[in-house]
Amino acid sequence: MSGRSAPCNPQEIGALFLFEKLTPEQLGRLCAEGRVERFEPGPVYTEGEPATCFYVMLEGTVVLYRRVGADDVEVTRTSQRGVYAGSMQAYLGDRVRQVYNNSMRVTEPSRFFVLPADTFADIMQEWFPMAVHLLEGLFFGSKSTQRAIGQRERLLALGSLSAGLTHELNNPAAAAVRATATLRERVGKMRHKLAVIAQGSYSPEVMANLIDLQERTAERVAKAPALSPLEASDREDAVTDWLDDQGIEEGWRIAPTFVQAGLDVDWLDQVAAAVDEDILPSAIGWLNYTVETELLMDEINDSTTRISHLVDAAKQYSQLDRAPFRHADVHELLDSTLLMLSGKIGKRIKIVKDYDRTLPKIPAYPAELNQVWTNLIDNAVAAINSAGGEGTLTVRTAAEHDRLLVEFRDTGIGIPAQDRERIFDPFFTTKPVGEGTGLGLDISWRIVVNKHHGGIRVDSEPGNTRFEVLLPLTAVEEESQ
Predict the structure, then answer these.
(1) pLDDT band, very low/low/confident/very high, at 85 (cuts 50, 70, 90)
(2) Mean pLDDT of the chain
């Protein structure tokens, strides 16, 4: 938007704090190459447009704002004479993209001293060469540091996840190895028991009955009911008594295995009726090995299924086999992240999932959202640990107007009031030196706000801290960053 030009008065601009140390010659050059413009209420320039001018307010009221999703978020509102905005990085030239980083409007008739970006860059280079070198160093040094620390932040998160995943994989893997070794031993004993039975003078009908019992026993193991400790104890006592009555040695050792497999006294009565009394002890021993092998195979199956589930969760978390941008179910992303971090979360922190499963898939960069969940969960766990190590982390999803809400609520120590304004600032951290880079929330902000056109809100008091991530339900046209 163009304003109405007016004469430039060197004395007027020389009274601004930005130019008060300049010589009359320098003020004369500014007036010669710049201009004074009057703007009526409305926009002056728009975020993302080429940055062509440097603005210094002479009088009026200015508002700076940024576009976040479908909303204009106000950054600054002021009537202070001499405030400036616009192409403030023109002195960096082509080394950075010269666009307006925010939008500006005026709420009342306002006057500005306006300097073309090229002139601003030339004057900076000529009049303040040392200052320009210092500013360049600060600008590019900060970018380089932020990039390096950001990579370190990701590596730290990866190391934490790898440690947690290794821990989670180790348990089922060790269980499978133990079960496999025991299974080998049991199968060997079962072969021996079968050889003993086969050496007896048993008719084909008796052998067929034994094979049928073995098959039906295996089927029963697969359908074994879940028993309470009291029910299991009562049934073990009954099975032990039955085995003792039949003269079967060490029935108390066999009973727990039979009960775990769902075998009871009624089933054992069917076994006794199906075989002759003299081979009952051998038949029971053989069936015991059958039951043990079935239970061991179930354990191996459970362990390998758990390993497969963990590997799937790792793939879901990393999104290695998925498109970078796609429609994703946030619940799948949250579950994979929680599973990947379960080792770090530990047993003393209770996880509550309050999901609205009716929510639709949303357009997103899933791998990057997983990084956001990781940062927020990691901070929540640290806050709970700082408060004693026991607490609750609640992860909630809900619809909020045209956006999807993901809320992380923890019962940790909370964020001090004086720190809440700064938590999203790069390199700001309340963690001890070496434990935090101060980029976790900054990275999360960039992913949610800049990449997904969403928003992040935070509300905190001791015992109740909430980070709320708001994501658009529909795709937002990509804007220049």
Answers:
(1) confident
(2) 78
What is the mean predicted confidence (pLDDT) over 410-415?
88
Q: Would you state the structure tokens that stand for residue 346, as one six-digit string? A: 């530990």
Tokens of 441: 């929330």
Q: What are the tokens at 240?
A: 């032990």
Query: Where would I find the H helices in 265-346?
Result: 265-274, 280-318, 330-340, 342-345
| Cβ atoms of residues 332 and 395 within 8 Å | no
340: buried, middle or exposed (CB in 10 Å: 19+, 13-18, 0-12)?
A: buried
95 to each of 91, 237, 389, 409, 421, how far by Cα in Å? 10, 82, 48, 42, 31
Is-contact 87 39, C-beta < 8 A? no
Q: Which of 177, 40, 44, 149 is nearest to 105 (CA)?
A: 44
Q: Answer yes or no: are the C-beta atoms of 107 and 63 closer than 8 Å.
A: yes
313-349 pLDDT tens trace: 666 665 555 557 889 899 999 988 888 788 778 888 9
Q: What are the structure tokens assigned to 188, written together? A: 């060997």
pLDDT at 396: 95
159, two tokens? 């190391």
Quick one: tokens of 447? 């992913």
